[in-house]
Backbone:
């Protein structure tokens, strides 16, 4: 899942057009546009608007580890003429008080790189953009997401950045980064989770013992490839013929442990 | 982006984060020279990057980045209770580098550190100074490669060469370099000293392939171990951690036989045996980082905060290896890590 955020209406329009995003029913103070696997939040331009927009979005629709958040904005150069007029990936941020924050840049990309600061913390060529909004966004988003899930791209020349070819390259890369970084499958399927719930019921297990059972069966699946492999129908039998009481359940659980652990 | 339109991870060390103070150290310039194409990002303090909350270790391990920093505070620490002291009374360890190039599924570093990025401390001279202060009081046995693999990183840091020279100059210092490395060229170029103990962690090939990603093969490790001995260093073999697999029992004998076919027993200073054990809090973090690793997701028994395979099973695993090693080495050269010995292993100054 990929969430785009912007406060720029030109960028929002380009994104809606390129990705085929449709207006979603109003649920947040800011307009949302979406399609399967992608969503756009259009917030106000003030740092407070940006922070509250992203916080509201991530609280209302948490994506966990399978989410990539990408902020796209027009870049305001710290020194005129120093910024490339192409999309630039921000590799560092600096707040008003000098506090820094860094994303993890894990996916290979074709963009320029540089820093975005509330105010330039030093005179080095690293700091490219004056961007209080970027700082507000990363601070808010970092309460919800890992550093590799938050990316900010800025473009000092929107005319060039929103031209057909550069913008296609940008959005293609964003979608591919989402596939690379944020699409993971859990060890247990929903069906296997349900099997564990049934088994715990069949054996009269307490909450703590249910957690132990789950850990045991995760190990079983990882070491043998499936929940059933090598257990000679033990699990199926337990589901079909539940234990009569807690004592029987404990004995069955211990037998299962012995079967699974080498 | 490749031609099929999919993107890959950044190359390791494509980004180098440089602490302001570190930039002035010669080691920093030396390391940066090796990566002329890396993006250089200035940082105020390495903890601003290394200690961020909610980092994803497993993802970072796909594309580890490099941090160059200055180490502060205490630089040399007393040995931890879960580590073997090999009978040394004054057992210390130090970390000039945090994290490792290799990717072992069971590695405790993924429970100990919040980040998988490699941090190199460029002020090795300060660690030398603190070691000299300890040496002025008593002899020192110092593990210098616990939280990393200095042999694997020698091409990057050159720190082993400096440690070997430093050890050669201080007769009451013995250092241990724990490694899975196979950099024979580096070993042959190091200044020789028999108080530098190279300690190879050895595992059966099946365990290496399944759990010790990006590490050299058993054959390569054994060749490197032989080269280290031939170059004049002391040699320790570490059958530690022993990882329980379906083939644990059957592959132990051929594995140990192969080790001693390659390494003559008289080349070996000593050997250690220890089953996998880990602090409960580290294991919790490791399980989040490695949801798909059987080595990490094993339902370990938590015994006063230390998780292991259970006393009886651990004892059987240890005894199997002890009896196999006893065919080649005298008893006094075999060191065991056992739960009930952790107090005596953990010397406190």
Residues:
């Amino acid at each position: 899942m990929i969430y785009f955020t912007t406060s720029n209406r030109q960028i929002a329009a380009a994104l809606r057009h390129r990705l085929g995003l449709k207006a979603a029913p109003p649920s947040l103070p800011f307009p949302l546009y979406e399609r399967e696997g992608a969503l756009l939040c259009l917030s106000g331009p003030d740092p407070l608007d940006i922070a509250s927009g992203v916080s509201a979005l991530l609280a209302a629709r948490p994506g966990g580890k399978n989410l990539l958040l990408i902020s796209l904005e027009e870049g305001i150069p710290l020194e005129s003429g120093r910024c490339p007029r192409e999309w630039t990936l921000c590799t560092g941020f600096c707040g008003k008080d000098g506090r820094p924050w860094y994303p993890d840049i894990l996916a290979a990309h074709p963009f320029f790189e540089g820093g975005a600061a509330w105010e330039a913390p030093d005179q080095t060529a690293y700091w490219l953009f004056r961007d209080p909004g970027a700082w507000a966004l990363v601070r808010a988003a970092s309460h919800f997401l890992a550093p590799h899930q938050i990316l900010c791209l800025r473009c000092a020349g929107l005319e060039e950045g929103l031209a057909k070819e550069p913008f296609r390259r940008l959005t293609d890369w964003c979608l591919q980064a989402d596939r690379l970084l944020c699409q993971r499958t859990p060890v247990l399927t929903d069906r296997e989770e349900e099997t564990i719930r049934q088994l715990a019921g069949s054996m009269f297990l307490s909450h703590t013992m249910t957690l132990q059972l789950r850990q045991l069966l995760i190990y079983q699946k990882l070491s043998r490839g499936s929940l059933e492999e090598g257990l000679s129908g033990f699990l199926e039998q337990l589901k079909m013929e539940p234990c009569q009481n807690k004592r029987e359940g404990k004995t069955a659980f211990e037998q299962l442990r012995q079967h699974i652990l080498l | 982006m490749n031609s099929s339109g999919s993107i890959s991870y950044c190359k390791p060390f494509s980004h180098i984060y440089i602490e302001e103070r570190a930039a002035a150290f010669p080691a920093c310039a030396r390391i940066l020279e090796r990566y002329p194409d890396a993006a250089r990002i200035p940082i105020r303090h390495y903890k601003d990057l290394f200690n961020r909350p909610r980092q994803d270790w497993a993802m970072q391990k796909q594309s580890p980045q490099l941090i160059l920093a200055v180490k502060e505070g205490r630089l040399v620490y007393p040995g931890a209770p879960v580590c073997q002291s090999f009978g040394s009374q004054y057992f210390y360890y130090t970390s000039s580098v945090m994290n490792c190039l290799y990717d072992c599924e069971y590695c405790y570093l993924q429970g100990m550190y919040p980040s998988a990025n490699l941090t190199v401390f460029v002020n090795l001279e300060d660690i030398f100074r603190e070691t000299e202060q300890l040496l002025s009081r008593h002899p020192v046995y110092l593990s210098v490669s616990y939280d990393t693999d200095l042999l694997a990183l020698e091409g990057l840091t050159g720190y082993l060469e400096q440690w070997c020279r430093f050890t050669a100059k201080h007769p009451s210092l013995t250092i241990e370099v724990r490694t899975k490395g196979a950099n024979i060229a580096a070993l042959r170029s190091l200044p020789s000293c028999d108080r530098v103990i190279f300690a190879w962690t050895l595992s059966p090939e099946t365990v290496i392939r399944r759990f010790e990603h990006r590490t050299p093969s058993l054959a390569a490790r054994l060749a490197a171990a032989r080269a280290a001995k031939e170059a004049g260093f002391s040699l320790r073999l570490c059958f530690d951690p022993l990882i329980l697999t379906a083939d644990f029992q059957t592959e132990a004998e051929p594995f140990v036989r192969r080790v001693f076919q390659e390494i003559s027993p008289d080349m070996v200073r000593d050997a250690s045996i220890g089953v996998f054990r880990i602090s409960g809090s580290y294991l919790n973090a490791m399980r989040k980082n490695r949801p798909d690793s059987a080595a990490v997701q094993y339902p370990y028994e938590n015994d006063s905060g230390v998780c292991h395979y259970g006393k009886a099973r651990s004892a059987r695993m240890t005894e199997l290896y002890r009896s196999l090693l006893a065919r080649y080495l005298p008893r006094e050269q075999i060191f065991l890590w056992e739960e009930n010995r952790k107090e005596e292993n953990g010397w406190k100054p």
Chain A touches chain B at residues 65, 91-92, 98, 100-102, 104-110, 113, 115, 122, 124, 126, 142, 145-148, 172-173, 176-177, 179-181, 186-187, 212, 215-216, 218-219, 222-223, 257, 261-262 (CB under 8 Å). Residues 2-182 of chain A form a domain with the Rossmann fold fold (CATH 3.40.50.1580).
